[in-house]
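Protein modeling request. Please complete all fields; requests missing the sequence field cannot be processed.
Requester role: graduate student
Desired output: 3D structure, token encoding
Chains: 1
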Amino acid sequence: MVKKLFSALALMLAYGFSQELDSLKNSKLLAGPQESKVVAINANVVLGEYKPSAFKISIFPRNSPSEVFISRMFFPGDTIQIILPEDILNPDTLGNIASLEPIGGSYEKIYRLFSKSSESIDLGSFKIEAKSDIIKLSIIDGISLSPVSMAGLKLLHDGKIIFSGNADSMGYKRLRIPEARDNLKPISLRIETSKSYPAWQEIIEVPKGISSKTISLYQLHTNKGESLYRVINDLTPFRKGPENGSETLFLLNIGDLIAVSKVAGDRMYGTVRIDLYDKRSFNYFQGWVLSKHTILVHNNLSVKTLEQVDE
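Delivered output (311 residues):
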């Protein structure tokens, strides 16, 4: 009887010990290192005409720029990819920033906001730009003060176009003028619209750093029976009379407007507005121009022929 009790007790102790060992093993497995999810952050660099020797990409949270997650150096031609643990990124919408700093020249540092995502994040293309002075340009109507949308813009320096593009629907454009330029040679800005505003061109002052400039445009209004034409050729003669060899009053340029009131064959008679130095006061001149140098912008009823005027 005693032997049977001993055997039962030994069996119970052995079973309890084995259960404890299994529990200990399971707890060790649970406490072991867990593999973290990672995210691949990809980007592309557009060099254009520039040749930086390298560029450094840094990733950091938007709300704490001093806490950089990672910085890596890349060289032209490298595949841009950074691998990070997914859970270190800021979960807020657009809560993270990637910066690209070109090395080996005077280039702008570029920033890109992005949101946390799983597996991969595409930052798109970083376009290398030279360090520039910036003008925040606004174009408005000089009477109504409303924005002039989608105006065509050209910046010229030393006879070369350094920028060509358009303002946005609110008449705004951020103009970049490279710092590395001959400051003795002026910068001129030309503005053209598809509306009844004559072309605007003027030498502009470019302050260092970031500045703002507002330009007012004034429409050339037509009277009843007049139509608005735009000059399409530079150095177009504006003559005193319709006959060949008539005195040339001055030469018109692309974008100038003529309020045409009568036509004689391939010649048109109308009014041209010349802006004075302050662009807010004007002189008006009447004369003749060949129709082949113009294109119709706006037809206010109909243009009379010379014979109809004589009637």
